[in-house]
Design goal:
Strand content: 5-15%
Order of helices and strands: EEEHEHEHEHEHEHEHHHEHH
Protein name: Potassium channel beta chain
Helix content: 25-40%
Keywords: Ion channel, Ion transport, NADP, Oxidoreductase, Transport
Pfam families: Aldo_ket_red
Number of strands: 10
Number of helices: 11
GO molecular function: oxidoreductase activity
Strand order of the largest sheet: 3-4-5-6-7-8-9-10
Number of domains: 1
Distance between the termini: 31 Å
Shape: globular
Organism: uncultured Armatimonadetes bacterium
């Protein structure tokens, strides 16, 4: 496993990280989740991502118990705040009240004294940005959070936030967690260049496009039994099980590129994301330890300029 700095910051994270969205505390049994975490740790993955809203807090519970077997200093733990965690008017968003209360709740569920990376899960249009940034800054000063970041913020929102942190001499934004993969590249237009200039590390999610880039979904064939696309509770990003045949046909063209590089289709897709220096880590989701092992194999894989050009042409 190879490691990269989180943007311009001193902390290093594994190129491949393990997330818990739609899996731990929900569709995946805790014993299996624990096995996936163990496999990841054994393979050198040191970066684990979750969120308070995942399975209504259960994902944090599961992740905390699984990581409890290891030295706290040996891994980087990330979680998030923003989405509703109750029915009250202050049980959501990025107000100082909600951020502080949810930070304490996450610390308890994760059974830890501090969070390495605390992320604003979305942008809150109802709270002054200064209030949100000051709350994160104060958590860093208190030692409850070491670094803070954002997720799915626009370039304009991130730029505004960086201006405020500079003018107010606040701790800077360390990371951004956006959607990014070979068939979802909007990030490259504005957000990626901005984060590169500002030294904000990109921790990208859905690098396999919810499994589309693994090649397991074949054009004109039934969905594989047990796959995410076949489960209505997990396929909200896969057209409710009706995958785009044109996209599936394009993805099949990537197989020869993967084979000549000695990579699986999953490893090829992850290596494509990691080709960008702005990307600090790619977050994988795994329901089996074998998936973790396969995905971890993407770390260190180098694609030639010709490989990348051929991939771009195939998916255009």
């Amino acid at each position: 496993m190879q490691y990269r700095h989180l943007g311009k910051h001193g902390i290093k994270v594994s190129e491949v990280s393990l997330g818990s969205w739609l899996t731990y505390g929900n569709a995946t049994a805790e014993a299996t989740a624990k096995a996936c975490v163990e496999k990841a740790y054994d393979l050198g993955i040191n970066f684990f991502d979750t969120a308070n809203v995942y399975a209504a807090g259960r994902a944090e519970d599961v992740m905390g118990r699984a990581l409890g077997a290891y030295s706290r200093s040996s891994y980087v733990l990330a979680t998030k705040v923003y989405f509703p965690m109750g029915g009250g008017p202050n049980d959501r968003g990025l107000s100082r009240k909600h951020i502080f209360e949810q930070c304490h709740a996450s610390l308890k569920r994760l059974d830890t004294d501090y969070i390495d990376l605390y992320q604003a899960h979305r942008y809150d249009t109802e709270t002054p940005l200064e209030e949100t940034l000051m709350a994160f800054n104060d958590l860093v000063r208190q030692g409850k959070v070491l670094y803070y970041g954002v997720s799915q913020w626009s370039a304009g929102q991130i730029a505004h936030a960086t201006d405020i942190t500079r003018m107010g001499n606040l701790h800077p934004i360390a990371s951004n967690q956006p959607y990014y993969n070979a068939v979802g590249r909007d990030l490259e237009k504005e957000v990626m260049p901005l984060c590169g200039r500002e030294g904000i590390g990109l921790v990208v999610y859905s690098p396999l496009a919810q499994g589309v880039l693994t090649g397991k979904y074949k054009p004109g064939q039934p969905l594989p039994e047990g796959s995410r696309a076949s489960d209505p509770s997990q396929n909200m990003f896969l057209n409710q099980g009706k995958l785009d045949e044109a996209v599936l046909e394009k993805v099949q063209k990537l197989q020869p590129i993967a084979e000549r590089n000695g990579l699986t289709m999953s490893q090829l897709a992850l290596a494509w994301c990691l080709r960008r220096p702005e990307v600090s880590s790619v977050i994988i989701g795994a329901s089996r330890p074998e998936q973790v092992e396969d995905n971890a194999g993407a770390s260190g894989a180098k694609l030639s300029a010709a490989d990348i050009e051929e991939m771009d042409a195939a998916l255009a």
